[in-house]
Amino acid sequence: MEIKEAQELIDKWIKTTGVRYFSELTNMAILTEEVGEVARLMSRMYGDQSFKESDKHKELADELADVLWVLICIANQTNVDLTTALEKNLEKKNIRDAERHKNNEKLK
Fold first, then answer.
1. pTM of the model
2. Could you tell me which PANTHER family the record lists for this protein (predicted)?
């Protein structure tokens, strides 16, 4: 699925099944909550924390998809074309970081 298609599908879902978008600030809070759920799962899967019974059934892919969903909602309601934004961001990083990481002794 292309990013543009994802934005369109989520917009359609929100306007039908979801009724309407939550406010931008509510979606920002939800995004923070969803990122926290990813962090919680990562700390148990790859970090030192043990799983709680309530976390054992959670899947990283599903939690990351939740983050992506809310991010796309915020982009849609603020009129951000994520394809264009990502292309511009990659161009910026290619210019700014062309040699930065190659010269980082910590990464060798």
1. 0.89
2. NUCLEOTIDE PYROPHOSPHOHYDROLASE
Q: How many other C-beta atoms are found inside a 10 Å radius of the C-beta of residue 7?
A: 18
Instruction: Give the mean pLDDT of the chain.
Output: 95
Least confident of 20-29, 35-44, 88-97, 98-107: 98-107
Helix (H) or strand (E) holding 83: helix 82-96
Per-position b or e across 38-51, b if 16+ CB within 10 A of its CB: bebbeebeeeeeee
Alpha carbon distance, N-terminus to C-terminus of the chain: 35
